[in-house]
Amino acid sequence: MGIMLVDDPAHDGETKRGPGGPRTQVKEGGGSDTCEVTYTDPEAVAQVRKKLIDSDLAHELAGLFQVMADATRLRIVSLLAERELCVCDIAAALEMTQSAVSHQLRVLRMMQLVKFRRQGRMAYYSLDDDHVLKLYTQGLDHLGHTSGGATGPEKER
Amino acid sequence: MGIMLVDDPAHDGETKRGPGGPRTQVKEGGGSDTCEVTYTDPEAVAQVRKKLIDSDLAHELAGLFQVMADATRLRIVSLLAERELCVCDIAAALEMTQSAVSHQLRVLRMMQLVKFRRQGRMAYYSLDDDHVLKLYTQGLDHLGHTSGGATGPEKER
DNA sequence: TTAATATATGAACGTTCGTTCAAGTATTCA
DNA sequence: TGAATACTTGAACGAACGTTCATATATTAA
Description:
The structure is a homodimer.
Chain A: E1 26-27, E2 38-39, H1 42-51, H2 55-68, H3 71-80, E3 85-86, H4 87-94, H5 98-110, E4 114-119, E5 122-127, H6 130-146
Antiparallel strand pairs in A: 1-2, 3-5, 4-5
Helix pairs in contact in A: 4-5
The first copy, chain A, binds a DNA duplex through helix 5.
């Protein structure tokens, strides 16, 4: 992750502001080049900082979306949305190796998107709750609303 | 991406099934080791295959979640949920460099999660639509429902 | 017991990702 | 015009990811 900047919410002592105009330039710190922070609108910064999501929570949430951010795992979710399946059949439906599928199921399991039960030597997987499906369909919804061509993101340059 | 397995939906000719029992072993292909597919329950596989999300769509959806799968970008979203902001103030609120923020805004922009308007030399960013926020809050919802300790995913071994 | 099956997992390999650094554009001010 | 500002972008570097391969565990069948 490299040298992450500090995420101190109780940091407002530094928020010196200009004479009164809304367009003020303020350099933070004495002049250390580790973090070049230039306030353009100190009031706006102060306002949104209160609503800024906690850094730890942001990382946790990012982890959840990360789990959803893989085509293989999404395809697994689309299968499990239909019915409970054993690893073997998921691999068959996806035409992938059991190993690859098992690795991905582990990821889904660790973020509690799927659960499983053992029966003999097989493991039957299913979706853990409907939050997963909500996220899934909400995501599809977004694609439907934004995509003109849908194949790729906006090509701009 | 390495040697990806074929994702041919019209592939059911291969679905030979056993005498009648639900527990049948079927090897696909003559014996090529490129794709070891062992059907345990051919009916289940055939059933869920119909509902299997298209591979291209899965990749597209994965791309959307990918964009949401970063703490910095989520923190930006949490700021823009409050109000429109220029790059400079986002950087200030996050205590990150403008460069890093600009790179991430580009990612959000390309997936059409944020839009921006130019005013003089500044660029004011805002959320593109409320789908983004829905995904965001839905994600937080999921965390609230699953996390006992919430800090990390299920520790299992 | 041995062999086969169903799944899990560690290491490795190539790819992707997010940040930093060093430019580069475009606008404003003197 | 030249300097400063606001933002963008390409290259590079280390970290993280997804698959493959080989192996390990556990259950069932012979």
